Amino acid sequence: MARRTWNESIPGIGTFFVGIDIQPGRYRCDDGKGGWWVRFAGTGGGDPVGSWPLPDGPTEVEIPATDFAFETHVRTYWRRVADVGSEPSPDASEPRPVTDPTLRAELDPLVRRRRPLVALAPFSVLGMGFAGLPVLGSMWLLGMTMLAALVAIGAPTVFLDLTRAHELDKRRDRFVVPEDLDDEARALLARTQTAVDAVRASEVNREGLLESAENAVILPREEWEIAHALARQSRLRADEPERDGDVPEVEAVLRPLREKLNRSVTAVTRRVEALERYADHVRAADEVLVAQRRVDDLTGRAHEYDELLAETVRDDMALPEIERMTERSDDLLTLLRARLKDSAPDA
């Protein structure tokens, strides 16, 4: 089964979905000074865990497979240095989470709009310090000044992280995790992702011989729409009451509903099969590309064969001369034997 081809690094700034944009593992940043990171743990990223400000020098973070997303703001980048220590070997048939391709672009503006209000928090704390100065004295002002500094460093990040997690939770219908699917739906999503990964990892795609722009847009959209439909089908199957043959009225209502569900499953299955056919064609194109490269390599070496053939022709032209030399050696051998016989003393 084709496996996803991952990058071994994470850009310094951005939000990245685990299992979609980045793979789990331990990542290292060579210089995280003044930056920060947040792991959105739990289903939907509702349990953010972060570190800020990062110290001078290198820093590391471990991103487990159970995290929903990872947000980073550092000057350099993160590179993957190891697997997660407690992470089990992934099951090749287990699908990865899928998100609406437009979700990330939607979340960032929502968070940015709240930045100006968050920036006022340190000034509010400092204002409280000055307000209490006549009554509580200079130590109060000093303490509030230090608190304002801490708020200026940490509060914006904490607030914005919580905001992002809250917005993610409100958009729970915009991403699908394996827990949302039953066995039948998981199998179909795994087939979908295998086909998508095969196209993305293909040589013809990396060489730009396919419509790269279309693949970059259409494949994520196809994966999301299939996953979303499979999640809805799973919910309907889970909510469907068990068959009750003793109540014909209930069966009469359920029968057309089941037929509609089955038609939906058939339609999604055909869509998955179409992706698999596309992946098969891409694999065939890869084989042709490999063969073409082999032909080009052999064609490039044709001059060596021409030179060898030319040398062989010269060898053929030398055959008569060699044969004449052989005849002369035979004559010489006959002459020497005759002389040897004549020189022998009579018995």
Which key features would you list for this structure?
single chain, 347 residues, alpha+beta, two-stranded antiparallel ribbon, 61% helix, 14% strand, elongated
Assembly state of the chains shown: single chain
Q: Would you list the SSEs in sequence order as H and E? A: EEEEEEEHHHHEHHHHH
Given as residue ranges, the uncertain stretches (5+ residues, pLDDT < 50) are: 1-5, 86-92
Could you give the count of β-strands? 8
Distance between the termini: 92 Å
Q: Over all CA atoms, what is the radius of gyration?
A: 37 Å
Counting structural domains, the number is 3
Structural class: alpha+beta
* Average predicted local confidence, pLDDT: 77
Shape type: elongated
- Helical content (DSSP H or I, runs of 4+): 55-70%
Individual helix count = 9
Share of residues in strands: 5-15%
What do these coordinates show?
- With 347 residues, the chain is an alpha+beta fold.
- The protein has 3 domains: 9-175, no CATH class; 181-300, no CATH class; 306-332.
- The protein has helices at 103-112, 115-119, 121-136, 138-170, 183-201, 203-206, 212-239, 248-300, 302-343; strands spanning 9-17, 25-29, 36-41, 47-51, 59-63, 69-82, 98-99, 175-176.
- Strands 1, 2, 3, 4, 5 and 6 form a 6-stranded antiparallel beta sheet that branches. A two-stranded antiparallel sheet has the order 7-8.
- A hairpin with a 5-residue loop joins strand 3 and strand 4 (47-51).
- Helix 5 packs antiparallel against helix 7 (212-239) and helix 5 (183-201) packs parallel to helix 8 (248-300).
- The longest helix is centred in the C-terminal third of the chain and has 53 residues, at 248-300.
- The termini are far apart.
